[in-house]
Amino acid sequence: MEKDINNSKDNYELISEKRTKRRTMYKTIDTIMRGLFKLSGLISALMIVLIILFVTIKGLTVFLPSYENPVDLGNFLTGMRWRADQQDYGVLFIIINTILSSFLAALIAFPLAVLSALMITKIAPKRLSGVLTTIVELLAAVPSVVYGVFASGVITSLVDNIASFFNYTTFGGNSMLAVVLLLAIMIYPTITSMAVVAINAVPESHELGSLALGASRTQTNFKVVLSSAKSGIFAGLILGLGRAYGEATAVSMVAGNAFVGPTWNPFGITRTLTSTMLSGMHETAGVDYDIRFSVGIILMIVILINNFLVNYIKRRIESGE
Questions:
Q1: Could you tell me the sign of the dihedral formed by the alpha carbons of 202, 207, 213, 214, in that order?
Q2: How many CA atoms lie within 13 A of 300 on its CB side?
Q3: Which residues contact 131 (CB under 8 A, 6 or more apart)?
Q4: Is the pLDDT of residue 8 over 60?
Q5: Fold exhibited by the domain 75-319
Q6: CA angle (143 as vertex; 148, 91 as ends), nearest 5
Q7: What is the CA radius of gyration of the chain?
């Protein structure tokens, strides 16, 4: 009997020792993984800070008196002409064009993306939902230059035909409307993907409660599901607008790069901040090269203000004001 008790104690101590070692091992692994995640986050944040510092320093240099051929900051911020050959760099009309084209693109893509996400998650049969999800993911994976080639070959022809119908003349279809349609197509899958994730995260109890109170399926989808998912949906809108503001290659193919502005005619050529930064960069030097970093500063400020505004609107909607 005493021998059995001693064996039991030994087994218990052995098991306890193994558990202690296992806990120690798990704590060590957990500590290492936390350190790796913190290091990854620190490196990512550091890269962002370095990029911002580099662009800011490079962009502000051209306005300093010590620069070889300084640019007037007031004319840069308020000018309505961009003529590199005359060293006339006015960015105000480009800011207006960028905001206008991105806003119109979001105005087209946002409702279509939200309705598509609702269709995928709550209305379509399971097989059709899988097919639609795959299509949206493929659209999001298409490179920007492919969208640009498609726009220069298809969208510009469509815009040119529309302009001819209304007795307008375009520059081969390159226009503000072509940019808007292109950006709408490009940001559509981004917003849709985020909206799908947000809608899927809505608890099923919300829907069942709405249906139990007598609401129809359509009323539940629009008044309960979308309302509960609006935070994630607005996050998709922010990402979509970020891509619209930051798209350069594809937009440069159809914008036309106007020298003056702003462009209010949808069939007129336009110029955006990104197309300005991209156009002829490999051929420029001196002030014409450095001033494009100044445009980059403006672009970062515009995106930052846009994010604050969208978040503000989201908070107002969530508070019911």
A1: positive
A2: 15
A3: none
A4: no
A5: MetI-like fold (1.10.3720)
A6: 55
A7: 27
- pLDDT (tens digit per residue) in 208-231: 787 787 878 888 888 888 888 888
SS3 letters for 3-56?
HHHHHHHHHHHHHHHHHHHHHHHHHHHHHHHHHHHHHHHHHHHHHHHHHHHHHH
Q: What percent of the chain has pLDDT over 70?
A: 91
Quick one: tokens of 188?
């559509």
Whole-number Å distance between alpha carbons of 210 and 220: 6
Domain residue extents for the chain:
1-61, 75-319
Name the residue among 195, 179, 192 with its Cα closest to residue 103: 179
User: In terms of Cα–Cα distance, which of 297, 128, 130, 310 is closest to 234?
Assistant: 310
12 pLDDT exceeds 60?
no
Tokens of 267: 């069939």
Strands (DSSP E) contained in the chain are 82-83, 88-89
pLDDT one-digit tens code per residue, 106-134 = 999 999 999 999 888 888 888 888 888 88
| pTM beyond cutoff 0.70 | yes
The number of residues in the chain equals 321
- Give pLDDT, residue 181: 92
Phi/psi at 173 (nearest 5 deg)?
A: 95, -15
Average pLDDT over every residue of 67-87: 83
Numbers of helices and strands, H then E, in the chain:
14, 2
Cβ proximity of 148 and 250 under 8 Å:
yes
pLDDT given at position 320: 59
**So what's the pLDDT on residue 280?**
64
Q: Which residues contact 284 (CB under 8 A, 6 or more apart)?
A: 84, 292
